């Protein structure tokens, strides 16, 4: 619902001519800026933790977050905000990254929490969550996509650069949806811990994938996918 034509009240007529001033109204609804979306997968964490609060970053995970934060800072971009999953591993990753980006506001959200977005096709034998998870998590992750991944608002004058720190399943699903690929194929992609995925959303709504799961800035012995 960000296509200009969808934002115009077609019933509203010009009082003098009785005709819609369509061109003028469309002009006010067209986006002018480009959005740059940086999707960061959280760093390595303690897999033995029974509850979310126990699944804290490992020492290596903290190193990975430092490397990711340094890489983002070296890009020299003016980041507008960091939106992150409310899960412990994503929150801790965000705290470390934010040290390299002083002044950038942080926003926590439950929408970006890890989950089962949609049943993968082809199916896999090593990961089979309960069917109810797809209904519960899937609706939430789809809501995250619709809420965060869209063209710029018509009022936005300058290009924006936003960071989202979340989880592999969420990022892979978002990439498929943003590129209009079958979302069932999300599990065919693999993302390293602390990796950077860069989406570009143009004013006309076109989306391009600049990088997917980049960890080329990390030494080989620091790269993990757990």
Automatic annotation (TrEMBL):
Similarity-based family: Belongs to the phosphoglycerate mutase family. BPG-dependent PGAM subfamily.
Entry's Gene Ontology BP terms: positive regulation of mitochondrial fission; programmed cell death
Matching SMART domains: PGAM
SUPFAM superfamilies named among the record's database cross-references: Phosphoglycerate mutase-like
Tagged with keyword Hydrolase: yes
Catalytic activities: O-phospho-L-seryl-[protein] + H2O = L-seryl-[protein] + phosphate; O-phospho-L-threonyl-[protein] + H2O = L-threonyl-[protein] + phosphate
An MF annotation (GO) of this entry: protein serine/threonine phosphatase activity
Pfam family, one: His_Phos_1
Keyword terms of this UniProt record: Hydrolase, Membrane, Mitochondrion, Mitochondrion outer membrane, Necrosis
Gene that encodes it: Pgam5
GO CC list: mitochondrial outer membrane
Coiled coil feature spans: none
Compartments, record wording: Mitochondrion outer membrane
Protein name (record): Serine/threonine-protein phosphatase PGAM5, mitochondrial
Assigned EC number: 3.1.3.16
Xref: InterPro entries: His_Pase_superF_clade-1, His_PPase_superfam, Mito_Ser/Thr_phosphatase
């Amino acid at each position: 619902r960000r296509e200009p034509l969808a934002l115009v009240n077609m019933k509203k007529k010009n009082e003098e001519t009785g005709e819609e001033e369509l061109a003028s109204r469309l002009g006010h609804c067209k986006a002018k800026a480009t959005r740059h979306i940086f999707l960061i997968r959280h760093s390595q964490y303690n897999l033995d933790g029974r509850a979310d609060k126990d699944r804290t970053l490992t020492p290596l995970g903290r190193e990975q977050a430092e490397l990711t934060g340094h890489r983002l800072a070296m890009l020299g971009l003016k980041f507008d905000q960091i939106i992150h999953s409310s899960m412990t591993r994503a929150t801790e990753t965000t705290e470390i990254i934010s040290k390299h980006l002083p002044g950038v506001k942080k926003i926590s959200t439950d929408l970006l929490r890890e989950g089962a977005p949609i049943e993968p096709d082809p199916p896999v034998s090593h990961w089979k969550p309960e069917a109810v998870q797809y209904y519960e998590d899937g609706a939430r992750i789809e809501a995250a996509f619709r809420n965060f991944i869209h063209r710029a608002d018509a009022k936005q004058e300058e290009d924006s650069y936003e960071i989202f720190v979340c989880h592999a399943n969420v990022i892979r699903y978002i990439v498929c949806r943003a590129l209009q690929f079958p979302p069932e194929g999300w599990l065919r992609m693999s993302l390293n811990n602390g990796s950077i995925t860069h989406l570009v959303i143009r004013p006309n709504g076109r989306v391009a994938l600049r990088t997917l799961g980049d960890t080329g800035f990390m030494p080989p012995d620091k790269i993990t996918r757990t």
